[in-house]
Structure formats: structure tokens, C-alpha cells
Write a structure and sequence with these properties.
By secondary structure, this protein is of the alpha+beta class. It has 17 helices and 23 strands. Strand 21 and strand 22 (438-439) form a beta hairpin. The longest helix is centred in the middle third of the chain and has 30 residues, at 222-251.
């Protein structure tokens, strides 16, 4: 490897490592399955994970999907991927749609192919108790934002592709497509070319081949500029999400939400709160947010979102009606912060930070009044107070195993109707604290702790 190539590899790997740590993408002991098509982006992803797995303290595996669309060329890609994994000792999970008996539509769309991939990824991650790393880049981020803007989107859509969502991790969002190609070239690693990427059959390809180059003629760093806008929109979306959660907390009363409190909120905060109420039930399209806002501002009426869920205002309270009666929706996700939280279902949680010295002096008090404590430095990443999501996993303290949350709930015998409301803390899909079970393995205070996060819980009547 030449000196220039070595510098390229070192620069790109240091950029990726810093991004993984900054975003809290991986934790020691994670099993990470790379979504590996064989193209430049996924090749760069897998190479990086393999070369730096010791730095990241992870186990690396791979998966490849043959959609059954491209015939012989797709089989050649699968053979290339298989050969690479065999040479490098990487366990590979192959998925072949035709062999699985999946009916292939005459003109399969991008959406159909994506749904097929992610259905497989979800199943594989649950089965292997692993995370899925995809090779989305800054270039994909730019194309996605432009596509959403053309189709019509809101603030949440402008936030773009998140680095972490559920079981999914995207380490390469800090690189452009040119960077991944340069990384492969510097390592002397060839990759496959998907001929469909060169055709303008799909809208995303037309954006890639026409719109992005036009923007780059104005600003060569257009992709990075768009990615920066996405990060800013994501930060704004996170802030608005927190404000919406605080509004719903303030408005929470027995069985629902006080309408007058909702009406006092500023427009964007109210819309975000209503979006949070709708999204667990159905796609929170603008028209449903508008209809529910009209209901609230009129202080009367009802809105049926699905055959099972209707929102109705009665005696100044916004209620969620189901065939089983009045059921509160799950609490909307909100960033972890000190303070008290009264959550749907009658769950009360209080978080406090205390100096380790105070913790040591008052250990008997903490042990008596608080069900769990953790080292603040070990609670990393974008930690959210929320309820369960698909792909969540938990490492019970003292067990030295990782379990999907679904399996863990089954093991504990938690009733199905309670699971949707149980509070937890999570960074991505990694559950750090769970109601009734405490903090996860590896979070406990130790001799190196400077600050302790304490949690007090209480179950009150239904709210």
C-alpha cells in the first residue's frame, strides 16, 4: 500500500471511528450484521467493521439479499459476496427471494425491494439478537432529502436518515459515495456494480444523475451542505419532540388530556403533540393532524383514526376510545433529563443526578427509596425515555446475556396489555433501564464513577 493510500485509509477510518463514538452507535459485545450488497458503499462498511472490530469491541457478521429481480447478474453478486466472506471468515446470511417463494411483481418498485430487505433484516436481527449496519452515506442523505422535498414532507422528514433507529446503525453517514470508493481503492478491494443504478428508471436515480450534479455545479460540497441541514433539522425535531412530550405531560389527566392546556400551546408544539398521539395508531399524515387540531381548538367532536381507535372530547378532556374502553396512548419519546415524569398508565418516574460522594454517604437511603442507580458516564448516546419499539434488546444485570425485549417480557410473564405502556430508557434499540428490572448490565456505579443517575418509580392509578 502506497503512502497516499495509507493516509486515505487512516483518515477515513478515523473519521468513521469518531462518528461511531460520537453517535454512540455500538457498545462492547454488540453483534453487528452488515447489510452487504457487494457495492462500493457496503464493501467500505464491511471492510471498516472488520478492520476496526477490536477498536469497536464488536462481532461482525454479514447478510446479502437477492431480490430475484436481476437474474444472472444478481446471482453473480451473491457469489462475489459469498467468496469475500469465506476468504475473510465472516459468517454470512443469504436471503434469496425466489428460493423463499416470494412472488416477484412484474415491475418491482424501489419500495417493494426496500420492504423485502427490511422485513428480512428485522427477522434476522431478532433471530440473531444483533444490530443491522447499513451503508447509507452522506450522498444517500442528500438524495433522500431532495426526494422527500419533491414529494412533500414536514420537519420530521427534513431530518433525513438518522444515524441510529431501532436495531439499525449507519456508520457511513459521515462519508460521501466518493469517499467509500476512495477507501476501497486505497485498500485495493474491488466491488460489484449494480447496473440498475445507472438507469433513470427510478426517481432516486434521476435525482442522483441530474439534480445532485446541478447542485454541485453551484457548490461542490452540496451533499455535505444538505447533510448539515439534516443534522440541524434533526436537532430541531428532537427539541420539538421534547416540547410536545412536556405539553402532553402537563395536559395529562385521568383517562386523557385536558383540552384547555393543549390549546394554550404554540402551534408547532401542539402539532407535534398531536402527531405523537396519532403515530402509534396510523401514519400521522398532515390531514389527520389538521383534523385532530380542529377538534381540540373547537373543544368538541370526535375523530375516528381507525376502526379500533377514536379520539373524542368529553367534559373538556381529549379521550382515546377503543373497543376495550378508554385507553391512554403510549408516552411519546422524550430525551432523558432530570425531573419527574407522570406517564400514561399511572407510571411515575423521577430521575436525579447526584455526586458519587453523596451517593456513598447516603447509600442506605438510596437503596431504600430508589430501585436502581447507574454511572452517568455509562448512560451514553441519544438516550430517550419512551416505551417499547420493534428491535429493542436488554441485557439484564448479572445475567451476562442479551435478550430481545419481547423475549424478556415473555420470560418475566409481563401481560401483553401492559407492555405498550411500560417506561424504559434506551439509546437506539439498546434498553439501558427498564421498569421493574432496573439498569442494564454494565451500567452500575463503580470506583471510577463521578456522578450517579438515580431513578425512583411509583405506580399510581390509571392516568
Amino acid at each position: 500500500m502506497s503512502t497516499d493510500a495509507e493516509k486515505t485509509v487512516q483518515c477515513i477510518e478515523e473519521t468513521l471511528l469518531a462518528y461511531c463514538r460520537q453517535q454512540g452507535l455500538f457498545k462492547s459485545g454488540d453483534r453487528v450484521i452488515a447489510a452487504y450488497s457487494g457495492g462500493a458503499d457496503s464493501m467500505a462498511l464491511l471492510l471498516f467493521l472488520l478492520r476496526r472490530r477490536k477498536d469497536l469491541a464488536i462481532e461482525v457478521l454479514a447478510t446479502h439479499v437477492n431480490h430475484g429481480i436481476r437474474g444472472a447478474s444478481a446471482r453473480a453478486d451473491a457469489n462475489f459476496v459469498t467468496a469475500f466472506c469465506r476468504r475473510n471468515g465472516v459468517e454470512l446470511f443469504l436471503y434469496d427471494a425466489e428460493k423463499e417463494g416470494v412472488p416477484i411483481p412484474p415491475q418491482p418498485s424501489e419500495e417493494w425491494a426496500r420492504e423485502l430487505r427490511y422485513t428480512w433484516f428485522d427477522q434476522l436481527a431478532a433471530r440473531e439478537e444483533a444490530l443491522i449496519a447499513t451503508a447509507h452515506t452522506c450522498s444517500d442523505q442528500a438524495e433522500t432529502l431532495l426526494f422527500r422535498m419533491a414529494r412533500g414532507t414536514g420537519l420530521h422528514g427534513l431530518a433525513g436518515i438518522p444515524p441510529c433507529r431501532g436495531i439499525y446503525r449507519r456508520p457511513c453517514l459521515c462519508l460521501t459515495r466518493a469517499d467509500t470508493e476512495a477507501y476501497c481503492a486505497a485498500l485495493g478491494q474491488n466491488y460489484v456494480q449494480d447496473e440498475t443504478n445507472a438507469a433513470d428508471l427510478y426517481a432516486r436515480n434521476r435525482i442522483r444523475h441530474t439534480v445532485v450534479p446541478a447542485l454541485q455545479s453551484v457548490n461542490p460540497a452540496a451533499e455535505q451542505a444538505i447533510a448539515r441541514l439534516c443534522r440541524q433539522m434533526r436537532a430541531l425535531d428532537d427539541w420539538l419532540t421534547a416540547e410536545a412530550a412536556a405539553l402532553l405531560q402537563a395536559a395529562a389527566v385521568q383517562g386523557g388530556y385536558e383540552v384547555e392546556t393543549l390549546c394554550r400551546a404554540r402551534g408547532p408544539v401542539l402539532d407535534a403533540a398531536l402527531h405523537a398521539l396519532i403515530s402509534p395508531v396510523r401514519d400521522a399524515e398532515e390531514k389527520y393532524v389538521n383534523l385532530l387540531r380542529f377538534l381540540v381548538l373547537q373543544r368538541e367532536g370526535a375523530l375516528q383514526l381507525t376502526p379500533e381507535v377514536t379520539y373524542k372530547i368529553k367534559n373538556g378532556v381529549l379521550l382515546r376510545l377503543t373497543p376495550q374502553g378508554i385507553k391512554p396512548p403510549p408516552a411519546p419519546p422524550q430525551p432523558l433529563d432530570e425531573g419527574s415524569f407522570s406517564l400514561p398508565g399511572g407510571y411515575f418516574v423521577e430521575f436525579r443526578r447526584v455526586k458519587y460522594e453523596e451517593f456513598l454517604k447516603n447509600q442506605p437511603i438510596f437503596k431504600k427509596d430508589l430501585n436502581c442507580c447507574a454511572d452517568c458516564a455509562k448512560i451514553q448516546g441519544n438516550v430517550m425515555l419512551r416505551t417499547r419499539q420493534p428491535g429493542d434488546s436488554f441485557r439484564p444485570a448479572g445475567r451476562h446475556v442479551r435478550k430481545t425485549l419481547k423475549k424478556y417480557y415473555n420470560e418475566l410473564g409481563v401481560p401483553l396489555d401492559e407492555r405498550a405502556l411500560l417506561p424504559l430508557l434506551a439509546s437506539g434499540s439498546e434498553v439501558l433501564w427498564l421498569w421493574g428490572s432496573g439498569f442494564a448490565e454494565g451500567c452500575a456505579p463503580d470506583a471510577y464513577t463521578h456522578e450517579v443517575l438515580t431513578v425512583r418509580t411509583e405506580k399510581t392509578g390509571e392516568a
